[in-house]
Design goal:
Elements (H helix, E strand, L loop, with lengths): L1 H29 L6 H16 L11 E7 L2 E8 L1 E3 L4 E2 L6 E2 L4 H14 L9 H4 L5 H4 L4 H5 L9 H4 L5 H4 L6 H9 L15 H15 L3 H10 L8 E2 L2 H7 L4 E5 L2 H4 L6 E5 L9 H4 L1 E3 L1 H12 L6 H7 L12 E2 L2 H6 L5 E7 L4 E7 L3 E7 L1 E2 L3 H12 L20 H6 L2 H16 L7 H12 L4 H14 L5 H13 L3 H14 L4 H13 L3 H17 L5 H16 L1
Parallel strand pairs: 7-14
Antiparallel strand pairs: 1-2, 1-13, 3-4, 5-9, 6-9, 7-8, 10-11, 11-12, 12-13
Length: 563
C-alpha cells in the first residue's frame, strides 16, 4: 500500500510538476536581468517542456533540438530526448530531421532565383510552363498564385476526392510528372486569386515547373543554388534510403491515462510514425536539415546572399491571408497571441516530425526540429520568444484584445460589443500589414453566444458572413457550428451546415453521421437513415475505428421508423 501511495504521489508530482516548474520559471524571470539570465530563463522553460510538455499546452514532451538566438548571438542550442527510442540512442545538437513544409521556403527561393534570372515570370501560368496541364484551370493559375496559396487548388483532400486514400497515398512512389497529372484532375475549390487556401499541391506544381525550366532535378537545384553557396552540409532533399540511414526516427506520442501511469514509468505511449514515401512529399515537404543549417539559412535571407533585396522583399510581403512566398508574414494566430510583434515564419509537420523557423523583427530567431509529434508549435515558439526577451509569461498582457465572449451577451457588450470587435480587427490588420479576418473559431463562438440568447437572426448573419470569407470552411469548426444550431433547434441551419461539410468531405463518415443527427432530430427519419447508412459504408471502406458507433446510430433510427 505504501508503494502504491508513493507511486500516486509521483504521478501527481509529474502532472502538477509542470505548474510548479512554471512558477519557478516565472520567479526566474522576475530576477534582475544579467547577460546570462536569458540562457537561464530559456533553459528553465525548455527543461519544463522536455519533461512535462503535454501538461503545459504543447501537446507532448518536447523531443528534438531547440535553437534560440538574439541579435546574431545564440542563447540556447540544445538537444532533448532520443534519436532512436528502441535502441536508446540520444539526440545530439547536429541531428538531422525531416522539416516538412519548411521545405516550401526553399522551393520559393529557387523560384525567385529563376525569376531574377528571367527564366520564370510571376504572372505566367501553369499551362505556360507545363503544356500537358489542362488549360481549363492551368491558364488561370499563375506562378504568383501558386507561391501565395491563392490558386484555388485543394490541399490533400483533393486526392481523396479522386478516390485516393491518405493511407494509400503516403506509401505511393510518384514522379513529379505523375503527381502533376493527379493535381490536374482536381476540381478547384474557389476562383483563383480570390482567397487564401493553404495547399501543398501549389508547391508540387512549382517543383515540376522548376525542373521543366532548368532541366535539373529539385535535389540538384538545391545543391547548386542554396546548399553549396551557403555551405549547408546537412540540408537536402531526402530519399527513402537516406531517411532510414541518416535522419532521426519519427514518433507519435499519446498520453496515457492516470491509472495506466500507476504501472508505468513512461509519460505516455510512443509509436513509430507511419511510413511516408518521400517522393510524394517532394518540393512541398521532402527536405531534411539541422538547426545549425537553418540558422545559417535565416541569416543568409536577411543579408540577401542568395537573392536581391527587392525580390527578397517581395517574397516577404504579405498577400491575401498574410502569406508571402513560402513564408507567413505576421501569421494571424501568432500576431493574435502577441499583437506587438512582427515576424516572418513557417512551420512544418510530416508523419512524426515537427519544425518551425521564426524570424522576429526585434532580432530574435527561434528554430526547433522535433521527432515526436504532436507539438503545439505556435505556443512553443511564442513562449520561447518571450523567454528570450526576458518577459514573464504569466505577466505578459496583450495591449489589444477581442471583446469577451466567454460570458453572456451583456458581458460581450460591456467589453466593447460589435464596435469593439470591428476596432480590434482594424487595429490587428494595421499591425499585421494585411487584412486579418475573424477566424472560424471566432465565428463559432459568436454564433453560439447569440444562439444562447435566442438571437437566431444575428447568429445566422455571422454564419453567412463566415461562408463569404471561407468558401471551404474547416470541417471541425463547421461541424461545431452545426451542432450549435441543432442544440437550439435551428434545424434547417444545422442541416445546411452539415450538408456543406458532406459536400466538401464526401469521403468522411463523421460528416454523414452529423448530417444524420440533424435529420433525425428534425423528424426526417428516412433522410437520417440514408445518412447513417452512408456513414457506415464509408467507415467500413476506411477501416474507421468508429464503425460500431455509426452502426448503432443506424439501428437506432431504424427502430424509430418502426414505431
Amino acid at each position: 500500500m505504501n508503494i502504491l501511495i508513493a507511486k500516486i504521489q509521483q504521478i501527481l508530482t509529474r502532472r502538477l510538476g509542470g505548474i510548479l516548474s512554471l512558477l519557478m520559471f516565472f520567479i526566474l524571470l522576475t530576477l534582475p536581468f544579467t547577460a546570462s539570465s536569458f540562457t537561464q530563463n530559456i533553459n528553465a522553460l525548455m527543461e519544463l517542456y522536455s519533461q512535462e510538455g503535454q501538461h503545459n499546452r504543447i501537446e507532448s514532451p518536447f523531443n528534438g533540438v531547440m535553437l534560440v538566438a538574439k541579435d546574431n548571438k545564440i542563447l540556447l542550442k540544445k538537444a532533448y530526448g532520443f534519436y532512436d527510442k528502441e535502441n536508446n540512442i540520444p539526440l545530439v545538437e547536429d541531428a538531422k530531421f525531416l522539416i516538412g513544409s519548411v521545405t516550401k521556403q526553399f522551393t520559393a527561393m529557387l523560384v525567385m532565383q529563376q525569376v531574377e534570372r528571367g527564366n520564370i515570370d510571376l504572372e505566367m501560368t501553369v499551362s505556360d510552363y507545363l503544356p500537358y496541364f489542362p488549360k481549363e484551370n492551368g491558364a488561370k493559375i499563375t506562378i504568383h498564385r501558386l507561391l501565395s496559396h491563392t490558386s484555388g487548388l485543394p490541399h490533400y483532400e483533393g486526392l481523396r476526392r479522386l478516390g485516393i486514400k491518405s493511407s494509400e497515398f503516403r506509401k505511393m512512389s510518384v514522379t513529379p510528372n505523375s503527381y502533376v497529372k493527379l493535381i490536374a484532375q482536381m476540381e478547384l475549390i474557389n476562383e483563383p486569386g480570390t482567397e487564401f487556401y493553404y495547399s501543398s499541391q501549389n508547391y508540387i506544381l512549382l517543383g515540376a515547373i522548376l525542373e521543366q525550366v532548368t532541366g535539373k532535378s529539385f535535389a540538384q537545384l538545391l545543391d547548386i543554388y542554396i546548399t553549396k553557396p551557403l555551405a549547408l552540409k546537412n540540408t537536402g532533399y531526402a530519399d527513402n534510403k537516406y531517411h532510414q540511414q541518416h535522419i532521426a526516427k519519427g514518433y507519435q506520442f499519446k498520453q496515457i491515462g492516470f491509472f495506466s501511469e500507476l504501472f508505468s514509468s513512461e509519460k505516455g505511449e510512443y509509436k513509430l510514425a507511419k511510413y511516408r514515401d518521400l517522393s510524394n512529399a517532394y518540393t512541398t515537404g521532402g527536405m531534411y536539415s539541422t538547426v545549425d543549417d537553418l540558422y545559417t539559412w535565416s541569416k543568409a535571407l536577411k543579408s540577401h546572399k542568395l537573392l536581391s533585396k527587392p525580390l527578397t522583399d517581395k517574397m516577404f510581403s504579405p498577400n491575401i491571408g498574410g502569406y508571402g512566398y513560402g513564408w507567413y508574414i505576421n501569421h494571424e494566430t501568432m500576431i493574435r497571441f502577441n499583437p506587438s510583434i512582427q515576424l516572418i515564419s513557417h512551420g512544418g509537420s510530416l508523419d512524426g516530425y515537427s519544425s518551425n523557423l521564426a524570424m522576429y523583427g526585434d532580432g530574435t530567431t527561434v528554430i526547433y526540429l522535433a521527432n515526436v509529434t504532436p507539438v503545439g508549435n505556435i505556443r512553443l515558439t511564442m513562449n520561447m520568444h518571450l523567454a528570450a526577451n526576458n518577459v514573464a509569461i504569466d505577466e505578459f498582457k496583450r495591449d489589444i484584445k477581442l471583446p469577451n465572449v466567454n460570458g453572456d451577451l451583456d458581458d460581450f457588450h460591456a467589453d466593447g460589443g460589435l464596435a469593439g470587435l470591428k476596432a480590434y480587427y482594424q487595429e490587428i490588420s494595421r499591425r499585421a500589414g494585411y487584412k486579418v479576418n475573424m477566424n472560424q473559431w471566432g465565428y463559432q463562438e459568436f454564433i453560439k453566444l447569440h444562439l444562447s440568447e435566442n438571437k437566431l437572426a444575428i447568429a445566422e448573419q455571422f454564419y453567412q458572413e463566415m461562408l463569404c470569407l471561407y468558401t471551404t470552411p474547416n470541417k471541425g469548426w463547421l461541424n461545431k457550428i452545426g451542432y450549435d444550431f441543432l442544440e437550439y433547434q435551428a434545424y434547417q441551419q444545422a442541416i445546411d451546415s452539415f450538408e456543406l461539410n458532406v459536400k466538401n468531405h464526401q469521403y468522411s463518415a463523421s460528416a454523414y453521421d452529423s448530417l444524420g443527427d440533424a435529420y433525425r432530430e428534425s423528424g426526417q427519419l428516412n433522410l437520417a437513415k440514408n445518412s447513417f447508412s452512408e456513414a457506415v459504408s464509408l467507415a467500413k471502406s476506411n477501416n474507421d475505428s468508429n464503425l460500431s458507433y455509426y452502426e448503432k446510430q443506424l439501428s437506432g433510427v431504424l427502430r424509430l421508423r418502426q414505431k
